[in-house]
Design a protein that fits this description.
- There is one protein chain.
- By secondary structure, this protein is mostly helical.
- The protein has a single domain, classed as Four Helix Bundle (Hemerythrin (Met), subunit A) (Up-down Bundle).
- Helices cover 79% and strands 0% of the residues.
- The chain is built from five helices and no strands.
- The N terminus is likely disordered.
Length: 154
């Protein structure tokens, strides 16, 4: 049973990353379909949900996963610091997207925000998976719910 739970952490991390990438596609489609935000707040619900899901994912990693990895593998401190810095950058980009949506930005401006988020998010996910997938299989988080560690899509 222990090994099944251990393997599930890396599998779940990949799944959550894929769910977030899928949510970004839906958010982008909602922007494309919506026109100016002031005229189409309903379709942008998906965009708001994407922002909340990505923030929740990174918050869970920062609060639960990264400290557990740091305790188990202090040699990965630089990697964890890099990943946490990415989280702050992505958080800033999400904040800018939220401000643009609230201000009634048009499709082109929202698309640019989503393009920037996608570029950083994709690179971040690849780096995180490359450096941490094997490690999360060894970290003791068996008593923590995946939605706590990986956010609402976990």
């Amino acid at each position: 049973m222990e090994s099944a739970r251990v393997v599930a952490w890396s599998t779940e991390l990949r799944r959550v990353h894929q769910r977030l990438a899928d949510a970004l596609v839906i958010a982008r489609e909602s922007v494309e379909a919506g026109g100016p935000v002031a005229l189409a707040l309903e379709p942008l619900t998906y965009c708001w949900a994407f922002c909340a899901a990505l923030d929740g994912h990174h918050g869970g990693e920062d609060h639960w996963l990264f400290p557990a990895v740091r305790a188990a593998r202090p040699d990965l401190a630089v990697v964890l610091d890099d990943l946490a810095r990415d989280h702050r950058m992505i958080g800033h980009l999400l904040g800018e997207l939220r401000r643009a949506m609230t201000a009634g930005a048009g499709v082109d401006e929202l698309r640019r925000h989503l393009d920037g988020i996608e570029a950083v998010m994709t690179t971040h996910f690849r780096y995180e998976e490359k450096r941490l997938l094997a490690v999360v299989d060894q970290v003791g988080l068996s008593d923590v719910d995946t939605t706590v560690v990986f956010g609402p899509l976990g």
